[in-house]
Design goal:
alpha+beta; two-stranded antiparallel sheet; globular
């Protein structure tokens, strides 16, 4: 009985590290992993990083596809605590998204409220795609986001 308590439980961080290692060893892309579990690459990456909970069947599919321990499936299905660094990001790619929200966030809010009323775009009922678009001045990154409109209630 004493040895049972000496064992440590697997965490979301542990599973993320296993996923990244398995991905690298197998030479897979996020699109390739997403195809194996029939989910979008954006959602798959976010869930693998611990920011979303996998439906149990998708958690099983991922652990099988990547050869992860069975215990990883139950960890992947756990509800996450969505916490991230609150400092200004220094990675150039991530910083540009931070900059876009800083510069255009109030504009997006104003336009959403003009078109829909007082409310927000859901990040729960949400999808996103990242595509490459050829352009004569250099290829473009196209990010499309679609979230359900949620109006604020008055009471």
């Amino acid at each position: 009985m004493k040895d049972q308590f000496a064992m440590t439980e697997m965490t979301k961080e542990d599973v993320t590290a296993m996923i990244l290692s398995a991905k690298k060893q197998a030479g897979l892309t996020w699109e390739g992993i997403a195809e194996k579990i029939d989910m979008s690459p954006v959602w798959t990456h976010s869930a693998c990083m611990g920011m979303n909970a996998f439906p149990p069947a998708k958690a099983e599919a991922l652990t099988k596809a990547l050869g992860l321990p069975q215990e990883a499936a139950s960890v992947l299905a756990e509800s996450p605590t969505k916490i991230w660094e609150q400092t200004v990001p220094t990675d150039p790619c991530i910083y540009r998204f931070y900059e876009i929200v800083g510069v255009y966030g109030p504009t997006l809010k104003a336009l959403i409220q003009e078109k829909f009323g007082d409310g927000i775009m859901s990040a729960i009922d949400f999808d996103m795609q990242v595509t490459r678009v050829e352009h004569p001045k250099g290829d473009r990154v196209k990010v499309e986001m679609s979230g359900k409109y949620l109006g604020y209630n008055s009471w």
